[in-house]
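Hi C.,

You asked whether I'd gotten around to modeling the 201-residue construct. I have! Everything is below, sequence then structure, no commentary in between.
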Amino acid sequence: MPMIRTSSVILLLAAVLFLAGCSAMTAQNPPTALRPVNAVPAEGGKRLLLGGHDVVAYFTQGRHALGSPQFESTYEGVTLRFASAEHKALFDAEPRRYLPQFGGYCSNGIVYGIPWGGDADSWAIIDGQLYIFGGRASKDAFMLDPAGNLKLAEKYWQEEVAGRNSFLQRAYRLVIRVPHYQSGEELARRVAEATARAPAQ
């Protein structure tokens, strides 16, 4: 069994290194303090955070909104788009206030050391910070224990993910899972059980 696991890791890492020149890997791994980041490749070699969604709109409008190429800022090698000049000005004045935590990756994935996913329309603001999730199921699982999950996510972000290649980290933690790993099915079951126990409103 250990030999199979080691071989799997080697094959995964080899595949990742083979793809190292691909645009997705380049977009997610800028040579700056924001590495890694949930960005997609855009025209002119840009790294577009959250597919161009406006990070300020979450705070000012309480919703996700697509930004416009007309209102762009570049921060630490990553391009952000905004729905208005006002939002761009707010970001430019205090970029760290509006940036999503964990590089904009699914916060529930970071609980397991996996920088993956992150949908602009699945999000929460907790204690004044923006957290992105990989969909409703990921958000529901995370919210079963937000304080505990934030603590785990902070630990893995600081100890393993921040400053590292997103693809290598993802491959590693998909094979060598954290001790508290739970599958999507297990998390869905826990969410269903919690929902069933919740008082009717």
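If it helps when you're writing up: The chain has a mean pLDDT of 91.

Thanks,
B.
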